[in-house]
Write a structure and sequence with these properties.
By secondary structure, the chain is mainly beta. Helix content is about 0%, strand content about 40%.
């Protein structure tokens, strides 16, 4: 994703599919410490992609902003230690 950070998404809730506002992203599976290897995925010209580790179906939704997902809880925020 040129010019910005690649967003990370998780499927802690076990959703059948997750709608996202980007075509390039990282899937982490469940939330840490139960995450799988963080894998970069690129939909290219397609509108959906399946994560090869956790089988989550991600669908691109042009109505969502790059930092948005449906469900909203799928967007992963790194926790910074002080």
């Amino acid at each position: 994703m040129a010019g910005g950070a690649v967003p990370k998404f998780s499927n802690q809730a076990g959703a059948r599919e997750i709608a996202i506002g980007v075509k390039e992203f990282t899937c982490i599976g469940a939330n840490p410490p139960f995450d799988h290897p963080h894998i970069y995925l690129d939909m290219g010209s397609e509108a959906e992609i399946v994560c090869p580790y956790c089988s989550t179906l991600y669908r691109f939704d042009a109505g969502l902003k790059p930092g948005e997902s449906r469900p909203a809880s799928a967007l992963w925020h790194e926790k910074l230690s002080a």
